[in-house]
Structure formats: C-alpha cells, structure tokens
Amino acid sequence: MATLRPELPLAGRRILVCRPKPESHRLSEYLRQAGAVVKEFPLLERQRLEETPAQRTLIQNLDQFAHVIAVSPFAAQLLLERLDIWWPQPPVGIKWYGVGAATAETLTSGGIKSQAPATGFTSEHLLELPDLATLAGERILLARGEQGRELLRDTLTQRGADVTELALYRRDCPTYSNAQREDALGTFSPEVIITLSGETLNNLVALSQNTNHNLKQQLLVVPAERVAQQARNAGFKWISLPAALDDNAILTCITEQLAERDQHIPE
Questions:
Q1: Are 33 and 81 part of one and the same domain?
Q2: CA-to-CA distance for 125 and 123, rounded, in angstroms?
Q3: 214-267: per-residue pLDDT in tens?
Q4: Are both 160 and 245 inside the same structural domain?
Q5: The CATH number of the domain where 28 resides is what?
C-alpha cells in the first residue's frame, strides 16, 4: 500500500463505504491512513454459486471458446478457481479480457495474460477493444454474476458472436436491523458516501426511504455516468466520478471535491 501524504488530506472527514467485503476493508483502511473517519456499510453481499453439471462441461470444453471475459475481479477469481480444477495449464488460443484493469490483473495473477481497456473500466470501454469489434461466429464465454447488466451479452451477440454466460455468484443486499441502519445513515452522519455500482446505489436508496437523513445533499461517489444519472434521478445533488476505481483515484476524487466545496463556504 502506498504511503499517503503527511498532511492527511481527509483528516476528520466522515466517509461511508458501501462496497462489498473484502474490497470495503481495503478501501476503508486506505482512507483512514488519509485521516478519514470511516464506517463500512456494505450494500452488496456476494454468494458463490455451486457448480452445476452444465457449468462443469463448459469449463471442461473451454478450449472451444475464442474469447473469455470476466466482468469483475470477483468473477475472475472464481473463474480461476474453476479452471484450476480442470485445466492445470490454461488452454492456448483463447483471448482473455477483464472489464477494467483490476479484473485483468486478477486474471494475470492467476497466470492468464488478459486485455483491459487502456482507459475506463466499464462494459462500454471494453467493447471498444479492436479484438471485440468483429465476431462473426466466434464463441465467447462471459463469466459474471447471476444477474446484472446485459449490455455485454447483447452487444457481442449483435456483433455476430455466440455468447455463453457462466454465472458464478449471486448478489444480494445484506440484512440490517433498524438500529444498524440508523447508526450508519443517521448517527454517523456521513459527509461522503461511496457506492460503486448501480445495484449498490439502489440498495442505499431503498434503505434510506422514510428516514430524515439528509444523504442526498452529501458527496456521492459513483463509478460511471450511467450510475450518476441514476443518482440524479433519485434526487442526489452532489455526485462525482473518480478517474478510476483504484483506492488512490477514489481518495483523490474525494479530496478534490471536498476541497472545492470548502473554498466556497463563507467564513
């Protein structure tokens, strides 16, 4: 972990981290090193799915695919675990991809060289890669969660690919008591809320309904313009997108946004 600047740019700032575990732990610790007061309040819980006979056959026949795409670091990690059982060495001739650098790095750490967008970390950015532009008749395996955006599948199919989905995990909203919800959203009174997916934002909105908490006036950090528009539609007023989704980019985004606001607060 990088050493942060000694002036502690987020000293005393209250930040609510809504990422799932274990990502919430890593990001929270990073922000604490910058001086922030952090509360973890994960709004997504991921459950591994048991391998079905059909999925086992897919993995065993992986060499029949021309492309394999993992949509998240968690999907990449679970895919590597499945591969380790049936393929001591990954089959040759496949082009591998991660939606974003972190996902590609997860695959690379497992010995699989993969592509990711040079800039950006969304499905839209991945679809700009030249190797995914013309796909007539090519088979693609899409490693993902049980539900989610269909943009990748639909666009690749439109480009002529034969797309097969491999659902590796399920996403749910954790169950919180009224006291836990009040502690995170009310008593803690966050100045910054980090929601790095549309589903996370939806769960935040649902949990904060029928409360007096002024969350929609606080800084909301989201991953992409699509989620930013979703937040605007939900009534959030102060929304910011980091340049990337690594811990340092999120820290920089928060620091710059708070500093800009502070400059405009009358003394």
A1: no
A2: 5
A3: 889 999 999 989 999 999 999 999 999 998 888 999 999 999 999 888 776 655
A4: no
A5: 3.40.50.10090
